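Recap from last week: sequence in, structure out.
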Amino acid sequence: MRPILAVVAACALTWMSGCTKIAARDLIREGNTLYHSGKYADAIGKYDEAAKLEPDGVTLFWNRACAAESIVLKMRDPTLTSDRKLYTDMALSDFKTWLDRLENQTEADRTAYLDHRLALLDADERCDDLLSYWLEKHNAEPKEEGWYSVIARQYDKCGRTKDADQWFAKRTVDFPQSVRGFLSLAIRKLEQLYPEVESGLQYNANYSEDERIAIANEAIALLDKATQIDPKFREAYTYRSIAFTQRQLARRYGDDPLQNTAQENLNRLFAREDTMAAWRQQKAICDIDQQPECPLDKPPEGPCCMLPPRPLSAEEEAADVEQKKLIEAEIAALTAGVPEPDKGKRKGKKGGK
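Predicted C-alpha cells:
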C-alpha cells in the first residue's frame, strides 16, 4: 500500500508543478498583452506575479526588463528622477539575470544585453558609469581610434566640455596621420562660430571679431594638416570653405574706403581674399571629383559640379595685391610715428558688433 501512496504523492507534486508553470506562462502572456498596449507598469505587475510562481524562469526577466526600460525612456520629467532610477535598476538587474540564465549564450545575446545596458545608463544620465565603461574600452584597446570620439561625446553629454576638448585634441596627438582626427577637431573649433538660430546672423555674436578670426585660423590650420596628409580629403575642403567664410565675416571695415582707417581698408582686402579662398575650396572639390563646372546659363548636359561664380577676377586680385602693399606701407609709417590724415567721421562699419 505504501508504494502506491508514494506514486500518487509524486504524481500530485508533478501535477502541481505543471499547473504552476502553466499559471506563470498565462501571467506572462497577460503581461505581454499589456506591454504591447503601452501599459508597462501593469505589465510589470503581471511579470512580478509570474516570477513568484516560476522564479527560475528566463523569458519573463527579459520581458520585465523591456517593460521597465520603456518606462525609463519615457521619463523626461526632472522631478521623477527617483522613479526613473528605480526602474533603471530593475531593468539593469533583469537584463543581467536573463543573460546569466541563458543556457547557450551567443554573441548576439551579449550584444543585445550591452546595447540595452548602455541605453539605460544614458537615459538615466549615469555619466560616471558610462565614462568608466568607455574609458575601460579605450584602455583595453588603446590603438582603436574610434574610442576617442566616443569618449569626447560622452564628456560633452556629461557637461564636461573642457574634458571633451582635451580628447578631441588628444586624438590628433596619438594619431598624427589621422585626417579624421584633424577634421573632428577643426569642426569642434568651427562649431563655436555658428550662430544661434534665433539671432538671424551668419556668425556667433558672442565672440569679438578678433576671437572669431583666431578661432577660424585654428580651424584652417587643422584642416591644412588634414590635406597635407591626404590632398584628396574632400571634407577638409568643405569645412575650410566654411572657416574662410567665417573669417571674412569677422573682418571689420566701412563701406567707404575714403572714410576708413588704413587698418580697416586692409581688413577689406583681407575679406576679399577670404572670399576667394572660400571659393577655391569649393573649386578644389570639383577638381577632386574630376567634374566640370555646371554651366550658369543653361541646364547641364551631364554630371557636373555646382560652383558659384568666381568672386573676383584675376585682374581684381592683382589690383588688390598692389593696393595691399600701399596700405601696409602706410600702416608701417603710422607705426613709426607719422600721423594719419583726418578722414572725418567714419561710418558704416562692417563686421560683428
